[in-house]
Structures are given as structure tokens and as C-alpha cells.
Amino acid sequence: MRVTFLGTGTSQGIPVIGSNHPVCLSENSKDKRLRVSILIEWDGITYVVDCGPDFRQQMLSAECSHIDGILFTHEHSDHVAGLDDIRPFFFRQGDIPIYAHKRVLKALKKRFDYIFVDEANKYPGVPSVQAIEIKNKPFKIKEFEVIPINAEHNRLQVFGFRFNEFAYLTDVKTIEKKERKKLDGVKVLVVNALQQNPHHSHFNLKEALEFIQEIQPKRAYLTHISHHLGFHDDTQQRLPKNVYLAYDNLQITI
User: Fold this and answer.
1) The domain that contains 45 carries what CATH number?
2) Does the pTM exceed 0.90?
3) What is the per-residue pLDDT across 111-161, written as a single tens digit (0 to 9) for each?
4) Which of 62, 72, 183, 254 is 20 to 30 A from residue 112's alpha carbon, by CA?
């Protein structure tokens, strides 16, 4: 399995528009972060987790010409705003499967109502999707089992996902013990680490490292990063040996 970090930034990305923060002014490419998303590939199959407002740019950078579906963690704009940009995939492939909580599907139908209307009333050129509701229990995509990890983003329910020995969690603040047990034996863990200081809806760096220490993966990667976490290179030097600060276009193999 290969995972590409399409974006590793928080909702505003880095640099933040109009900001004079030193990280936003950095010339290091690893300090420039699009909105958070990953591409997962195995056996010729390709899935995306979340498609935010940078989705088109991310697909071009990854030279991705085919996706088998999209999994959504939750409905916030930085995770769903790029849904209309699935059109090139739809034109070549037909309906694109999307997997999401019932609440998230409802939000998508409200925001992108023109995508979900019946074919007889659909405007020409609009993409179509195959909406698949997921609950907090394992489900299959292309005969591959995916295990949802239920978590809280402040008071909003979000899903993380476990794919065999790989797990991806973003926009997480609290995870119950029974949900953490689903991560037993994970070899590669990706988790959000927004900034140095505590935050009401995200792990900060300290909380993320404590969570990694509890789960004990062989490798861990931090994502959903704001400029308040600091410069990439400086932050990486302070991390434990098996913990890495992810960056846009980083590829890892599991």
C-alpha cells in the first residue's frame, strides 16, 4: 500500500492569506501546506480521503487520472469543498462512489444539491456520485476491509479510518478507549497535530505525541498542521525518532 499526503495543512493552509508570520513567509517547500487529504493506492486501486478546496491542484500534482472513490471524515469545508472537481473523473468513469456518515451525506446533498438531483433534472456536465452511508462498523471497498475509528472534533463526530496496518485520523480531539482499541497493532499511524498550544477541537503537539505513545505504532506521521506549530525542519528535529512531520506530496509505503 502506498499513501500520498496530498495536503497536510489546516483549514487556512500555509501560508495564510495576508499573514506575516515567519512560517507563512518561509521559502522551504515543506512549510507550504494545502488543505489536508491523502491518496491511498493498493493493487491498482485508488481512494482519496477527503477532497477539500485544493482537490484539483492536488490531483494534478499527484498525476492522478483515476479514483475508485472518496471517503469523508466529516463535513467541514476544508474536507469537502472540492467535490465538484470530481467532474473529470466522472466524465471518464461514471458515478464516483463516496463513503460518509449519514449526517455528512445530508450536508453534502444540501451544499451540492445539483450533484444529487435525479438525472432527468440534472444540468448537463454535472457529476454524479454513488452515495454510500457508513456507520461505526467495518465496511468493504473493493473487497478490502476498512475499520472506522469514531472520534470527536470538539462536539462534532468525525471518522478516522484503519486500512489493515495503516490508520489515518484527522481533526481529532477526543477518542474513547474502545475506539483506541481498534488501533491495536497498527504499524503506521497518521494523526493531527495542529499547533503547540492547546486547542478546543484538535490535538496539539503534546496530545498527539501522547496518543502516539499509547498506540505504539512503528512509525507515526503528523498532519493537519498550522503555522503555529513552527517551521517544519525545526519541529522535526524535536520529535521522537519514529515520529515524522508529514509534508505535501510525501509518499510512504506500508
Assistant:
1) 3.60.15.10
2) yes
3) 999 999 988 888 889 999 999 999 999 999 988 999 999 999 999 999 999
4) 62
Number of neighbours of residue 150 by Cβ within 10 angstroms: 17
- Surface-to-core class of residue 132, CB atoms within 10 Å of its CB (0-12 exposed, 13-18 middle, 19+ buried): middle
223: β partners: 192
List the strands of the sheet with 96-100, edge to edge.
Answer: 129-133, 96-100, 69-71, 45-49, 37-42, 2-7, 251-253
Residue 106 Cα distances to 30, 68, 75, 116, 223, angstroms: 35, 22, 9, 10, 27
List phi, psi (to 5°) of 201. -135, 5
Torsion of CA 224, 226, 230, 232, to 10 degrees: 40
Task: State the DSSP code for 33.
Answer: B
Domain with 127 in it: 2-253
What would the grid cell of residue 211 be?
496518543
In this structure, what C-alpha cell is assigned to residue 101?
456518515
Residue written as cell 472537481? 85
Return the beta strands (E) in the chain as ranges. Answer: 2-7, 37-42, 45-49, 69-71, 96-100, 129-133, 139-141, 144-153, 156-163, 166-169, 188-192, 219-223, 243-245, 251-253
